[in-house]
Amino acid sequence: DSKTYTLKLREGIKWSDGVPLTTEDVQFWYEDVFLNKELTPTFPTWLTAGGKPMEIAIVDKYTFTVKFAEPNPLFLITMAKLGYNMFVLPKHYLKQFHPKYTPKEKLDAIAKEAGLQAWYQLFGAKGGDTSGWLQNPELPVLWPWKAVTTHTATLQVMERNPYYWKIDPEGNQLPYIDRITHTLVENNEMIVMKALSGELDYQERGIGISDYTLLMENRAKGDYRVVMWKQGVGADNALYLNQNVKDPVLRKIFEDKRFRQALSVAINREEIWKLVYLGFGKPRQASLISGVAFYDSEWEKMWTEYDPKKANELLDKMGLNKRDKDGFRLRPDGKTLAITIDFASGAATIPDVLLLIKKYWENIGVKVMVRPLERSLYTTRCQTGDIEVGVWSFDRNVAVLSDPGRLLGTTTDGPWAPLYALWYTSGGKSGEEPKGDIRKIYELWDKAKSAPDAKIRDKYFKEIVNIHKRNIWIIGFVGELPQPVVAKNNLKNIVDGVLWDDTTRSPKNARPEQFFFKK
User: Could you give the CA distance from residue 345 to residue 412 in angstroms, rounded to a whole number?
Assistant: First the structure.
């Protein structure tokens, strides 16, 4: 009935300091972290069902059960994506930072000395939250490598975990590589320059298809090869029109699907495809990629034809048919219809794409300002709904049921419904209550994620896809791109065709623990 799951820890696994992994670590995480309101003020939605959090019961040294009040059939696939720092924490180490085992007054004093406000912040920094292993090199881990410097270091160093639990078919313990270093650089251009000069052994993040020609021309000089993976990305740079935009006049315009349709058909995707993406990938709408669950060929093509005439007709029918002295359309309040597109600075292709978007949209009378923001500021403004149009990839396609955040709007770096999503994730305590089709999406997702029957679940999720097809809140240009990977010629076991996506935690799904240097 998808309510009860029995999970087993593999016997013999040890933390990186040699201490055995047992269900004591599960019990510690559940009772002392998950159920502690200071450490877990709100439960992750995927660990709740029927409005109630899961319950864990310890069976023996290596077995435990997870029980939900209502069916939670997506628990396993979501755990595969999100559960990398849940269910087990090293009790033998972290208990020294928990008030159940160490006096709270002592912990608060240590926290203040470290510049923190309270014990729970200290606990998180020492390893209780998802980035703890980066902040604290002393934290025992289960992963192939462990940090030996902090994440704030200019040169971050990771060394192999001597107790990592995987071996190769011949019995050799993994990982093969003893030491990995990450160098902090200013921007993506520096990454490419380091590749060209032969300073990188391996890199895929921060490299885009716009770098392909330069990388290919300098392979011999840098002593590397370029391996091509496949992005699980339906649109490399998608435009997310914020349905919670603060300007009430602009919000009403954004809410009219004719406006979004007009903006979409005003875009010459063929030109973007050839000029910016060098003919790689294919022109398409922001939609799930071919070959994955819930791919929809109609959605891929929806409102993608280049038709400025139709765009102008749609805007005129909306009543946006008056112009200012510069030829831009006027809003109902008499102001010039102007849109600001914000993006996180650093991505190589975004400025080139947005220059073309600005040209296309201004050709139909919509004034456009393009504004780069530092990434953390961009993310913050997305979450608060202070962005009019945001730019991010339409990613997380490969296993969409494990993370449907793009379609729900809960992944807010693509801010098409940030305040509606906050209402949904907070159980109505924050944000804005949605209406119409957006409200319907949340209702359908609640049904889908609680349906034990896969056919019924798929039916609900397909309807979510159909709602997106009708509305086009997210406008894409080019997707299904290859992902260039730079690898030194002596670095082996890197295969072609790996699906590169957030849901697969790439490059984890390429098994870096099996990469090796050929002598």
Answer: 17
As a whole number of angstroms, the distance between CA 142 and CA 30 comes to: 18
| Distance between CA atoms of residues 117 and 291, nearest Å | 49
Indicate whether this model's pTM tops 0.85.
Answer: yes
Dihedral of CA 495/496/502/504: which sign?
Answer: negative
C-alpha R_g of the chain: 25
- Distance separating alpha carbons of residues 215 and 221, to the nearest angstrom: 10
Residue among 43, 62, 63 at smallest CA distance from 54: 43
Query: Does a cis peptide bond (omega within 30 degrees of 0) precede residue 175?
Result: yes
Q: Report CA dihedral (202, 207, 212, 217) to the nearest 10 degrees.
A: -50
> What is the per-residue burial (b if ≥16 Cβ within 10 Å, else e) of 74-103?
bbebbbebbeebbbbbbbebbeebbbeeee
Report the C-alpha gap between 11 and 434 in whole angstroms: 48
- Contact at 8 Å (CB) between 122 and 115? no
Cis peptide bond N-terminal to 404, omega within 30: no
Contacts of 363 (CB under 8 A, 6+ apart): 266, 308
Neighbours of 279 (CB within 10 A): 11
Query: Would you call 304 exposed, middle or buried from its count of C-beta atoms within 10 A (0-12, 13-18, 19+)?
Result: buried
Task: Name 373's bridge partners.
Answer: 344
Cβ–Cβ under 8 Å, residues 210 and 350: no
Q: What angle do CA 271, 276, 398 make, to 5 degrees?
A: 100
Tens of pLDDT along the chain (519 residues) come to 899 999 999 999 999 999 999 999 999 999 999 999 999 998 988 999 988 999 999 999 999 999 999 999 999 999 998 877 689 999 999 999 999 999 999 999 999 999 999 999 999 999 988 777 888 999 999 999 999 998 777 899 999 999 999 999 999 999 999 999 999 998 888 999 999 999 999 999 989 898 999 999 999 999 999 999 999 999 999 999 999 999 999 999 999 999 999 999 999 999 999 999 999 999 999 999 999 999 999 999 999 999 999 999 999 999 999 999 999 999 999 999 999 999 998 777 899 999 999 999 999 999 999 999 999 999 999 999 999 999 999 999 999 999 999 999 999 999 999 999 999 998 899 999 999 999 999 999 999 999 999 999 999 999 999 999 999 999 999 999 999 999 999 999 999 999 999 889 999 999 999 999 998
For Cα atoms 473, 475, 476, give the angle at the middle one, nearest 5 degrees.
Answer: 145
What distance lies between CA 87 and its chain's CA centroid?
A: 21
First to last CA, the chain: 53
